[in-house]
Amino acid sequence: MTYQEILDEAIGAPPAPAVDLDQIIGREARRARRRRVGAYGLSAVTVLAVATGASVLVTEGTSSTGPAVGSVSPGASADGRTAEARVRSAMLAALDRSAPGLRWVSGVEHENDMAEWSGPAVAEPSWPVNPFSHLSASGWVGHGVAVRGDVRARLSIEISRPKAGQPAEPADCSGSERACETSRGPNGERIRVVDLEARYMPPGRPVIRPGDRTVDVFRPDGTRVRVAAMSRSEEFLLTAAEMTAIALDPTLSLP
Hints:
By secondary structure, the protein is of the alpha+beta class.
């Protein structure tokens, strides 16, 4: 519904304004469930507060308004699988092709406190998938907490398309990112790779600049595939090349 170009961070950016903590925590929980793509565009500064008192300041292009869950019918296909099952299978297959060997932490997909991502890593993906719909776009999002070596991160894949009459999101850079590159894919796709600036502030511990990376692929037919990962450490979960390969996977499509 919805993996966060959630979640990052504000080095050299203006200080974040004061915020309502409860409102922020609720907003982040919604993003975890359906991927922060609020107004289907990059534009705002998001401040995330972790329930334990640790906080993350994120300067990014994503709107802070998350998409709402839509009433999408899960109609079964000829093979008996629901749309949700087909989308989930395609997402996990794309991950396995381009980033094999990932492991997963179960039961923490909606957990905002990064300290809670410390459970055992298992081979079986914990990857819920849900439809979403907001004013500008609709689609599907899947997410989980992935592990590679010592790096743990919330990883998400979102597949969406703008609604009738809504303009396509521009694929340029906003200038507020830690790093941003644009390119073209093999079939005319527009690709944007963004590393976000963030600070994770765990209580009583040094500030961490989490590895927060988002890759958007805009297809000629209007479909957008977004792959996003935010680590609880300074290392990135996946390379930009791996995330781009996942987003370009042709099996990632709307059911």
